[in-house]
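On clarity, I found the account of how folds are encoded harder to follow than it need be. An entry of this sort, consisting of the sequence and the corresponding backbone structure tokens, reads as follows:
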Amino acid sequence: MEKKQRVLIVEDEKNIVDILRFNLRKEGYDTQEAYDGEVGLALALQEAPDLILLDLMLSKMNGFEVCKRLRDQGRSTPVIIITAREAEKDKILGLDLGADDYITKPFSPSVLVARIKAHLAQYGRLKQAGGVDRNQLQLGSVLLQKDARRVFVDGAEVALKNKEYALLRFLLSNPDIVFSEETLYERIWGYDAMGDNATVVVHINRLREKIEKDPSHPRYIQTVWGAGYRFKP
């Protein structure tokens, strides 16, 4: 029998832990729980889970520190931050410390499960390809180097503007998940930004012009009619 993938839940609110445990086990995952940051880090290092769901506001050690120490130990386990903290600076800090995704409460359990599946699948592909480099994302012929903020397609560097880069990084980090124009606008520009969802369409089209061989028939950035866009590995 194939071994079940295990998700470590590091969260101090028992009702949220119960909801996560129920939904994850229903999907066929094993779970392990920690209710403070110190225990969470110890379990992450000792038990080597397949993925970690990490709250930020934890006792004894906050989620930022847990994530930092995990990466300082050279662990590449996918980490999804789940938190009530919505400030952009917190999202940026979490991602800069090595988190793979950032989801704010309240969240849809089905969306969270979809994110978990996507990150586990991407992590599995990277390991099969010869290892995991936390500094870069690669799907197909598209390679994104995080620290250098550089993008290559088929080995050739592509020049992207800031929002084009942010949009591509977000899509690459969440392969095969469909995002509506509204969600993409919120995640990349924020609710307080000036503009509307047409901004997303313009940037999607610009990205296709730069990374697709045939922008009119995109291989990577696909339109899901009536739903939004996804990056297809």
User: Anything to note?
Assistant: The mean pLDDT is 85.
